[in-house]
Amino acid sequence: MNPATKPIDIQPAAHLRLVSDRAGEASGIQLSGVSKTYRTRDGDVPSLRPLDFHINDGEFFVVVGPSGCGKSTLLKLISGLLPPTSGEILVEGEKVTTPHGNVGIVFQNALLLPWRNILGNVMLPIDMKRLPRQQYFDRAKSLLKLVGLDGFEKKLPWQLSGGMQQRASICRALVHDPKIMLMDEPFGALDALTRERMNVELMRIQRETRKTVLLITHSIPEAVFLADRVLVMTERPGAVAAIYDVPLPRPRSLDVMADPVFTELVQRVRKHFFSKGALD
Amino acid sequence: MAEPKPQNAVSKMLNAAWVRPFLFLVFIVVAWDLSIRLFRIPAYQIPSPLDVVAVLRTEWPELLRQSWPTTYATVCGFLLSALFGIPVAMLIAGSKTVESYVYPLLVFSQSVPKIAIAPLFVVWFGFGIIPKVISAFLLGFFPVVVSAVQGFKSVDPDMVDLARAMQGSRFQVFRAVNLPHALPAIFSGLKVSVTLAVVGAVVGEFVGSNSGIGYVMQRSIGTFDLPTMFAALVILALLGVVLFWIVDRIEKLVIPWHVSQREDVIFAS
Lengths: 280, 269
Known about the structure:
The complex is a heterodimer.
Chain A: E1 29-40, E2 43-55, E3 60-64, H1 71-79, E4 86-91, E5 94-95, E6 103-106, H2 118-122, H3 124-128, H4 133-146, H5 162-174, E7 180-184, H6 192-209, E8 212-217, H7 220-226, E9 229-233, E10 240-245, H8 260-274
Parallel strand pairs in A: 3-8, 3-9, 6-7, 7-8
Antiparallel strand pairs in A: 1-2, 1-4, 4-5, 9-10
Helix pairs in contact in A: 7-8
Chain B: H1 6-15, H2 19-39, H3 49-58, H4 60-94, H5 96-110, H6 114-125, H7 130-153, H8 157-165, H9 170-207, H10 213-222, H11 226-254
Helix pairs in contact in B: 3-11, 4-5, 4-7, 4-9, 4-10, 4-11, 6-7, 6-9, 7-9, 8-9, 9-10, 9-11, 10-11
Pfam families (chain A): ABC_tran
Function (chain A): Involved in beta-(1-->2)glucan export. Transmembrane domains (TMD) form a pore in the inner membrane and the ATP-binding domain (NBD) is responsible for energy generation.
Protein name (chain A): ABC transporter ATP-binding protein
């Protein structure tokens, strides 16, 4: 489904409604009763309480929650790096047990390998998946062009600014053409100005590539600005506090932050955290 | 050939990496000579630099001949410590079980004075090259392991996760991420190791050998031939420097991307 064609003429209060969308379980990401408990020497540490939700194909899905609520665990579960303690995860209707490679991951730090040049770093998933390098060079280069890094292919990571490094890591997440992009606070390490610009750019990239995006963030305005839907998580052990539809039209510009719908949604999401201490 | 910019050539030469330590060395030698004259230190306690240079000149062929076995033992011992040290570090960093069994014992073994047990190797392996190689290996091994373990362990787990999520096999991830990441640490271990391997080889020669620089040193101490002993020391120091320099060169070739290898801004004085 194309998020740009989502109906925008909904009733005024529709964005405050709790949404439970279960359409098309064979596509997108389906979590049913997924929980995670870490076994340590000091006993079991519950990280996620059973989660049930569905992320549609091509949706921009944003998770907000306090520190240590298991957001990063969620990301590892969906990418198949960790097995869930209970429940099951379906990606494109396939049960996830081991890394399935149908994801691209972007972390808070760009995590580029300092010994590979930018193009080499973008090609990392191709090497890991043993795909033919020659066929993907052009794709890697056009992705770098898409994020405005053409001409930097032969540079080493340290020669680029933080924002540019993060763009390169987005290219790396897209080069093997996965269905899903998992982003763990991708712009958390950038300065506020760069961050806003990157958000606008990320929306453009998502619109052009039609990827399903699961983005984790601490910033409520960022969440509302980017998302088709926002999932609010509770404190550890994490659970779904609420899921909000964001009925703002696309394409969005930064001006949307002045929209009453936007500010109201931000307020509404913020209340989840201020009823029980601050969001840190 | 005429030099178009003599000014530049001079300042370039003064900025060359070897000039400053060389100047410092000259300073030390002068201070050495002066203090012997000033405090009237007898030659049987500390020889004068000129005597040492004289020995180096006259005994050059003999010293060179004796430095081959030492070099050979050092290089063999060093290569063995790299050959065993890096895989052992991989095992220790890769498996908690191996770490818990092996690492404490390894540290414990380091507190055994190798010089004290060196005679044992002579008992076991005779007076040949083997005791020297083993002694060099034992001294060079530990720094390689410690540095390499630290290098392998300091990999960002997110980076490994990222590669694993792309369905990289364990070996692929290791080759693409862990190993290159550990190389700077491994090389710093190798640099310590190579200088210690020189010490190890000499210790091996002290306790039971009839060749090598260590043997020359012991013999000259026995006859109070201090200039020869000091000449042997100079040879040993040179050996250490050259081997260190070789490892350093290799490091520059292997990890040109590392922070420590990036081109510095050159300040003209």
